[in-house]
Amino acid sequence: MHSIDDMPHVMGDDGQFHAQDEAVDLSGTPREAWLALAFFWLLGLTVFYQFFTRYVLNDSAAWTEEIARYLLIATVFIGASIGVAKNNHIQVDFFYRYMPPGMGRAMATVVDVLRIAFFGAAVVLTIQMMTKLGQSARMTLVDLPMNVVYGVCLAGFVFMLLRSLWVARVHLRRGYTVLERVESTMEDDLSVPPRQALQKT
């Protein structure tokens, strides 16, 4: 075990700190994350404009509260696909510790199939709702159809469906899921066979 003296020195002989941050690598960022970030910034700007008009100009822009609510919805629905891509939504893995490996593998596969079915059903139901509403339902203060908001929700469900298909494919290729191996992530090396991966941990 290395002592603290063996670690790279942060303070130089000149008495100054010479810390160097690691390079920021955004190559693994899901594409949907950039879209969610854009909605988040629009939300922040809208809320700031609301604050400015209310407390500085003393004449609050009424539309900002409604638009901010819709932008929050957009951020959540698009951002939820990031959780699907990283496979870190809330899940219970307690019982998998006591299951035989074969049963755990089968149950994890069922979870993948049910997740795909859920997001697929959400896509179909959202399309049906949007078709039924048409152009009749409008926003309260802004003269735009509510299907603009529901369209973003639909895009989020489509992203989550595609990501869940990708997650199931990765699980099938490597032979285990995070439910069976809680220390695993979606970034695990797929070139390592499952048995060797188990031996490495």
From TrEMBL:
Domain Tripartite ATP-independent periplasmic transporters DctQ component: 45-165
GO CC, one annotated term: plasma membrane
One GO-annotated biological process of the protein: C4-dicarboxylate transport
Subcellular location: Cell inner membrane
Topological type in the membrane: Multi-pass membrane protein
Entry's Gene Ontology molecular function annotations: transmembrane transporter activity
Claim: DNA-binding is one of the keywords in the record: no
Segments passing through the bilayer: 33-52, 67-85, 106-128, 148-166
UniProt keyword annotations, A-Z: Cell inner membrane, Cell membrane, Membrane, Transmembrane, Transmembrane helix, Transport
Keyword DNA-binding: no
General function of this protein: Part of the tripartite ATP-independent periplasmic (TRAP) transport system.
Family: Belongs to the TRAP transporter small permease family.
Subunit structure: The complex comprises the extracytoplasmic solute receptor protein and the two transmembrane proteins.
Protein name: TRAP transporter small permease protein
Species, as recorded: Ramlibacter lithotrophicus
